[in-house]
C-alpha cells in the first residue's frame, strides 16, 4: 500500500501541485477512503516527504550504479554514460520526472528543506566522484580546470534533463548528439593539454 500511495501522491503532485493534490484525490487514485491514508502516514506532509525521498533516492542510486559500472573505463566514457543515465532514468519514469519538475519550479516550504538537503548530498557526491575520475586520468590537471569541467558537465546534464520535456523524437535525439559532442570537445581539450604534450 505504501508503494501505491507514493505513486498516487507523485502523480497528483505532477498534475495539481502540492495544494491541489488532496488526500481525497490520492485516496480515489488508490481506491481507498481518505481516512485510510492516515494508517500509513500521519499527515499529507509526511506522505509527500516519503514520496519525494523515494523519488530522489532512486535517482541518486541510479547515478551511483552507473558510476560503479563504468569507474574502470576511460573518464570520457564515465561522463558520457552518466549523461545517458540521466536520460534513461527520467524517460523511464515520466510521472516522477513531472513531479520533480513541479517541485523544483514551485518549491513549497513543507518539502524544500528535504530537497535542499538531498541536492547538497548529491552534489557533494557528484563533485567528489568526477574529481577523482578526472584526477586519475589527468594527474596534472589543476583544481581550477577540474572545477570548470565539472561545472560544464552539470550544465550539459541540466540541459539534457530539461530537453526531455522540451523536445520529442528526432529533435531530442539531435539535442543528445549535440550534448555528447560538447562533452567530447571538453575531453579533446584535456587530452591535447595533458596527454599529447607528455608524449615522447
Describe the structure.
The protein is mainly alpha-helical and 200 residues long. It has helices at residues 2-20, 23-30, 44-70, 75-91, 94-105, 109-137, 143-166, 169-194. It is elongated, with a radius of gyration of 20 Å. Helix 3 runs parallel beside helix 6 and helix 7 (143-166) runs antiparallel to helix 8 (169-194).
What is the element layout, followed by pairings?
Layout: H1 2-20, H2 23-30, H3 44-70, H4 75-91, H5 94-105, H6 109-137, H7 143-166, H8 169-194
Helix pairs in contact: 1-2, 1-3, 1-5, 3-4, 3-6, 4-7, 4-8, 7-8
Q: What are its keywords?
A:
elongated; 200 residues; 8 helices; mainly alpha
Total beta strand runs = 0
Count of alpha and pi helical runs: 8
Largest β-sheet summary: none
Strand content: under 5%
- What Rg is obtained from the alpha carbons, in whole angstroms? 20 Å
Structural class by sheet pairing and helices: mainly alpha
* Average pLDDT level: 90
| Terminal CA distance | 65 Å
Low-pLDDT ranges = none
Shape: elongated
Order of helices and strands: HHHHHHHH
Helix content: over 70%
Amino acid at each position: 500500500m505504501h508503494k501505491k500511495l507514493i505513486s498516487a501522491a507523485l502523480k497528483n503532485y505532477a498534475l495539481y501541485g502540492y495544494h491541489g493534490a488532496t488526500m481525497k484525490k490520492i485516496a480515489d487514485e488508490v481506491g481507498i477512503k481518505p481516512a485510510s491514508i492516515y494508517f500509513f502516514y500521519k499527515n499529507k506532509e509526511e506522505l509527500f516527504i516519503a514520496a519525494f525521498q523515494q523519488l530522489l533516492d532512486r535517482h541518486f542510486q541510479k547515478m551511483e550504479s552507473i558510476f560503479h559500472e563504468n569507474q574502470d573505463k576511460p573518464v570520457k566514457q564515465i561522463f558520457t554514460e552518466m549523461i545517458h543515465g540521466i536520460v534513461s532514468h527520467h524517460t523511464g519514469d515520466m510521472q516522477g520526472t513531472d513531479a520533480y519538475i513541479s517541485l523544483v519550479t514551485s518549491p513549497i516550504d513543507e518539502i524544500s528543506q528535504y530537497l535542499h538537503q538531498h541536492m547538497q548530498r548529491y552534489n557533494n557526491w557528484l563533485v567528489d566522484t568526477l574529481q577523482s575520475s578526472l584526477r586519475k586520468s589527468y594527474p596534472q590537471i589543476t583544481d581550477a580546470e577540474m572545477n570548470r569541467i565539472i561545472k560544464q558537465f552539470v550544465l550539459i546534464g541540466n540541459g539534457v534533463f530539461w530537453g526531455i520535456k522540451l523536445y520529442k523524437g528526432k529533435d531530442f535525439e539531435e539535442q543528445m548528439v549535440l550534448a555528447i559532442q560538447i562533452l567530447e570537445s571538453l575531453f579533446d581539450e584535456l587530452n591535447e593539454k595533458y596527454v599529447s604534450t607528455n608524449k615522447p
